[in-house]
Write a structure and sequence with these properties.
Strand content: 15-25%
Number of strands: 8
Shape: globular
Structural class: alpha/beta
Order of helices and strands: EHEHEHEHEHHHHEHEE
Radius of gyration: 18 Å
Helix content: 40-55%
CATH architecture: 3-Layer(aba) Sandwich
Bound molecules: NADP nicotinamide-adenine-dinucleotide phosphate
Distance between the termini: 36 Å
Strand order of the largest sheet: 3-2-1-4-5-6-7-8
CATH class: Alpha Beta
CATH superfamily: NAD(P)-binding Rossmann-like Domain
Number of domains: 1
Length: 275
């Protein structure tokens, strides 16, 4: 693959900093050349991130490009999809990385977390799915905190309900405040239900509903990057943001050929783990 027209095209959401930024960096450093789209809600932060990566990886300077994308803004999602269509036609990998986590959040904060980490992510994925190549991959950056055992009993039961469908899952998300009242913090640094709940909703979507919308050769993964030192993860985290980028880039680098041993699974430290 030598010409830009034949490179695999990869979109990483929320990649102006943190794990997303490191994912883009590792892709530019990879022995496999990729065309990477670094996206950010704030254009000046996005442009700055691209510039710094071009300096760091001069051999790949032409392979990273910035495009504005605020996952909470439907107009931004639409413009982004139009730009992808006009510029590349298709993409080969979508990394849904953008996310927020606010400790001690108010009710409004909680709704904002569920929106950003789950409801908006579904809207973006729906919009980009028709633009995903026939053997494309979707990577969802989730968290071990999305485990059902970490959630309160009411939310857990709602997500385990065998009659749950996508419409009901969206209702669960919209009714999150009510359904998470019995949340009992499992760790001292996890102070409220919204962040774990947003990832539990995401895991349920990946496990039970998104696979039905994918083509036979398209791949899907939920990934826990580990607890990493970022603005979201805090300085107490044991891993670096670059460590957190390892598993996503490992999965991107694997052949574009579906492997039922790992496809559709929850992956951490390059290995399949239970949901
Ligand atoms: P981070 O450093 O705070 O980066 C989050 C990124 O998401 C930033 O680029 C941020 O942009 C972007 N973002 C937030 N809201 C957005 C929106 N509406 N539209 C577009 N971009 C938006 O956090 P991180 O630790 O790298 O987190 C990346 C992902 O890893 C998240 O999904 C997170 O839940 C997951 N994760 C992190 C850890 C950890 O320990 N760090 C552990 C498990 C999972 P701004 O700069 O504009 O805010």
């Amino acid at each position: 693959m030598n010409s830009n027209t034949t490179l695999r095209r990869i979109v990483v959401t929320g990649s102006n900093k943190g794990i997303g930024y490191e994912i883009v960096g590792k892709l530019l450093a990879s022995t496999t050349p990729y065309q990477v789209v670094l996206t950010a809600r704030n254009p000046s932060l996005g442009e700055k991130a691209v510039e710094s990566l071009r300096v760091k990886y001069p051999q790949s300077a032409g392979k990273v490009i910035f495009q504005q994308l605020d996952v909470n803004d439907e107009k931004s999602i639409s413009s982004f999809a139009d730009w992808i269509k006009a510029t590349f036609g298709k993409i080969d990998v979508l990394v849904n990385n953008a996310g927020v986590g606010l400790p001690n959040s108010t009710e409004e904060d909680k709704k904002f977390i569920i929106k950003t980490n789950f409801l908006s992510l579904i809207k973006l994925t729906d919009k980009l799915l028709p633009l995903l190549s026939e053997d494309g991959k979707i990577l969802m950056i989730s968290s071990a905190l999305g485990g059902l055992d970490i959630q309160g009993e009411t939310l857990r039961k709602a997500l385990e309900d065998p009659s749950l469908d996508l419409t009901k899952l969206l209702q669960v998300a919209n009714n999150f405040l009510e359904l998470s009242k019995d949340f009992n913090p499992p760790f001292p640094h996890i102070t409220d239900a919204a962040y774990p709940g947003s990832k539990a909703l995401l895991n349920t979507y990946v496990k039970r509903f998104l696979p039905q919308q994918l083509g036979a050769n398209q791949q899907l993964y939920a990934i826990c990057p580990g607890w990493c030192k970022t603005d979201l993860g805090s300085d107490y985290a044991p891993l670096t943001a670059a460590d957190g980028a390892d598993t996503p880039v490992y999965l991107i680098d694997l052949p574009f050929k579906k492997d039922s041993e790992i496809n559709g699974k929850f992956i951490t430290e390059r290995k399949v783990r239970g949901w």
